[in-house]
């Protein structure tokens, strides 16, 4: 039963990554803590970062084949994010686990609001990274990396709107491009937590196995629903608000 539960959670995480380029890790941590029953929030953060990194690579293969990845933007964004992730992880491990979950939930609410505000932004076909927007892309990469490392997330739900804001690329391109950074940031965060003994490899492997299936299904759905981005974003924002409210309630009860 426990194995089936972890596989199912992995499928859900992979599906959201393939569908909208993010959301996998923002759901992975609460799923591990409140559904699977991981006692130590730091272990949940470290393990989810590892699983999300691998699942992002799976989704990236499908998006690369579909030609939706802006490789130049990814090459600029990802390295800046990796540097920020190591810095953020160092601070995150020093914070009390329950307080970290509470801060994580508040960040989820902020991101949900931003997603709703930008849900009708369709982007510009052919938009890419250039000399004019490169500084903004680098700053966005570093800032996203810090948050990714601090909260142990892949950061895709932050990277997608950041790429759209910096370059005005269509959401489908932002989703594909974000997976490069999600994989890099997740791996960096996981490495930092692994060195501190905060990764459960058995559970992580089950999440990855389920995530591979979910990523494939999510990528196929993304290509079919790319014209319904507003409805998709609204739905996912509502999921974020629901999970965040539950996390805030549980965290405040534990403090």
TrEMBL record:
It is a multi-pass membrane protein. It is found in: Cell membrane; Membrane. Its main location: membrane. Keywords: Cell membrane, Membrane, Transmembrane, Transmembrane helix. Pfam families: TauE. InterPro entries: TM_pro_TauE-like, TSUP/Inactive_protease-like. GO terms for cellular component: plasma membrane. The chain crosses the membrane at residues 7-36, 73-91, 97-116, 137-165, 171-191, 198-217, 229-249. It comes from the Bacteria. Belongs to the 4-toluene sulfonate uptake permease (TSUP) (TC 2.A.102) family. This is Probable membrane transporter protein. It comes from Gluconobacter roseus NBRC 3990.
